């Protein structure tokens, strides 16, 4: 009986982990990926093999992910780049009031 009661809990959708759109595409020297969550969160990433065919060959990444919080009425965006020696982040947060003032 306990198994049946817990199974019902697992059957409920969890929107924060569902992906409504996913696009993966290989490129000549790497890949591109884009996804969008049902809660409005988005992610885009591009990976590129740099210095292909040399001893210095390495992978480089760049991308963004963003989300919107209804509780705080803010958009959050993170832009990142990475290679073998560094990982760099830039975060941006805009309130709903800021977005409205920018749109006129």
Explained architecture:
This protein has 104 residues and is an alpha+beta fold. It has one domain (15-97). It has 2 helices and 6 strands, in the order αββββββα. Strands 1-2-3-4-5-6 form a 6-stranded antiparallel beta sheet. β1 (19-27) and β2 (30-37) form a beta hairpin.
Strand order of the largest sheet: 1-2-3-4-5-6
Query: In angstroms, what separates the terminal alpha carbons?
Result: 59 Å
List the domain count as a whole number: 1
Major beta sheet, specifics?
6 strands, antiparallel
Mean pLDDT equals 76
Query: How many helical elements?
Result: 2
**Which ranges are low-confidence, i.e. pLDDT below 50, for 5 or more consecutive residues?**
1-16
Oligomer class? single chain
Shape: elongated
Order of helices and strands: HEEEEEEH
Share in β-strands: over 45%
What is the CA-based Rg, rounded?
Answer: 19 Å
Query: What is the structural class?
Result: alpha+beta
Topology, number of strands: 6
Helix fraction by DSSP (H/I, runs of at least 4): 10-25%
Biased composition (Basic and acidic residues): 32-46
Region (Disordered): 32-55
Topology:
Blueprint: H1 2-11, E1 19-27, E2 30-37, E3 42-50, E4 58-69, E5 74-82, E6 87-95, H2 96-103
């Amino acid at each position: 009986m306990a198994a049946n009661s817990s199974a019902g809990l697992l059957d409920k959708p969890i929107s924060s982990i569902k992906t409504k759109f996913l696009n993966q595409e290989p490129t000549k020297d790497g890949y591109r990926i884009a996804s969008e969550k049902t809660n409005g969160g988005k992610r885009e990433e591009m990976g590129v093999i740099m210095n292909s065919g040399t001893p210095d060959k390495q992978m480089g990444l760049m991308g963004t992910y963003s989300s919107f919080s209804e509780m705080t009425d803010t958009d959050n965006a993170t832009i990142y780049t990475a290679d073998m020696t560094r990982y760099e982040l830039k975060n941006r947060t805009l309130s709903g009031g800021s977005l409205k003032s920018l749109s006129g």
